[in-house]
Amino acid sequence: MTTSHVGGCACGAIRYETSQDPVAELHCQCRQCQQRSGTGHSSYLAFGKRSDMKISGEASGWQVAGDSGNLKVHAFCPTCGTPVYVTFVAMPEMIAIHAASLDEPERFQPQFVTYASGGFAWDTMDAALTRFERMPEG
């Protein structure tokens, strides 16, 4: 059964909602995610149809190239600074929201860990999760 995923930034200036199911839920331990989050990883829910996600408010963004060379656009609230979502230039319909930006973050159910090779001993991940040393194909 599909239920809405609703959330936004800390100050409420940016809000999103979608009724689609995520295609993946993951933790990423790459260095970029560590620096952006200020901790050992970032956590995301990825959705395959950006066009089916209603977003209100104006986000600021910055771009960075991933290992593949493809650009990722990190969107954050210009008022409170909360990272809210990531889009991908090479996959314009894909959008990943930050798990902690959900109104109900306990709904996040991680399936795997990417860039586990960059993880820190102090940032312990659930041992039951599948771990990928880098980003898995597909």
Kindly describe this structure.
The chain is mostly beta strands and 138 residues long. The protein has one helix spanning 31-37, and strands at 5-8, 15-18, 24-28, 42-47, 54-56, 60-65, 71-76, 83-88, 91-98, 112-114, 130-131. The longest helix has 7 residues, at 31-37. It is globular. The model has no long low-confidence stretch (mean pLDDT 92).
Sum this structure up briefly.
The chain has 138 residues and is mainly beta. 5% of the residues lie in helices and 38% in strands.
Q: What attributes characterize this protein structure?
A:
mainly beta, 138 residues, 1 helix, 5% helix
Strand and helix layout:
Blueprint: E1 5-8, E2 15-18, E3 24-28, H1 31-37, E4 42-47, E5 54-56, E6 60-65, E7 71-76, E8 83-88, E9 91-98, E10 112-114, E11 130-131
Parallel strand pairs: 3-10, 10-11
Antiparallel strand pairs: 1-2, 2-5, 3-4, 4-9, 6-7, 7-8, 8-9
